[in-house]
Every structure is written in C-alpha cells, then in structure tokens.
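On clarity, I found the account of how folds are encoded harder to follow than it need be. Since the whole study asks how a given chain folds, the encoding of that fold should be made plain. For illustration, here is how one protein appears when written out as sequence plus structure tokens:
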Amino acid sequence: MLATAIAVGRYRDASNNSSARSADGLQGGRGELVSGSDTAPASAPLVGAATGAASVLTLDGSIAPLVVDGEPTIVMISSRTCSWCKQAFADIGEMSGGRAVPRLTVLTLEGAEVGIPMVGREKITGARLVGPASSSGKVFLTFRYPGTPTFVAVDRNGRVVRTMPGYPGRQELQRWFAVMVGEQETP
C-alpha cells in the first residue's frame, strides 16, 4: 500500500496529546467518536479541508459540494489506472448484490465521467460520481493522494471520522460498505 497524506484511523480529539498529526491535520491511530454519538468531535476537520476538494464537478458538469450535508458518506478517491480500485469496486459490487449504495461518493481523479465504466462494470448503482472541480484541483488531488484508492468516512456534519489509504481487504471493506448502504453511520 502506498502512503498518502492522510493518516489512518479514527479522528482523536485535539486534547489527546499522545498522537501525532499528519501534514493535513488529521490524526492517526484509533481515536474515539464523541461520547454517546456517531459523529466526530467539533475539532475534527471538515471533509473539504481534509481532502482539499470542498467542491467537485458532477456528471452533469455542475459544481457541487463533495458531500451532502446531513448524511454520513464514504468518499472513495479513485483513478482509472488503479488496479486496487478495480478490486475494491469488484468487492463493492459483489457485496451490494444489486442494492444501491447511496452513501458512496466516488471521486475519480480523471473526472466524474471516468467513474461511469468503473462502477458500471461491477453493476454498482446509486453511487454519486464526481471529479475535481478544476484542472488545478485535479493536480492538487493527484499529489495529495499518490496512492489510490483512499477511503474517507464523513459524518452527518461533514467532518472526517476515519480515513483508510489503499485497499483494505474484503473483511475491512465490509465495515465501510455498511455505511455505503445506510446500515451504519460510521465504519
């Protein structure tokens, strides 16, 4: 697995001094959610700040926010040339068994339209397909994520709960899939 600028793990509150921060402000390790909830603490970064892609281009060419407010989302950053992305899509397609995955946003580095055959090949339905909002956004994302796929779990408040660079294997992906289909709020 290639390293990325995002650290792996649940976000830990800033008061926990035992963890190091990565370059983009996310903390590694296994932190906790806000006690008694399924959301990240208010100190957790918003997904736009964490990914560098607050706005994206949709399939119809309009600019939209990366995630829809009020709904937990898994953002999968992918690339057309990524063999591990193909494996992840194959597993997601098999796990879905024809069910829609409405809480999956596929951010394809080469553009939203490139995601169509990637999800179509595996009969994945209901995913939101987006791409970088500009050519500079594409360059920024490409350098920020030298390895794909990268999965980002976002809570209903738009805050990053957990990130996972690389293909995690089917067992771990199953936990993330539960969020994609709306069975869980966080992986």
Notes: DSSP finds five helices and eight strands in the chain. Helices lie at 47-51, 83-96, 115-120, 135-144, 170-180. The CA atoms of residues 171 and 177 lie 10 Å apart.
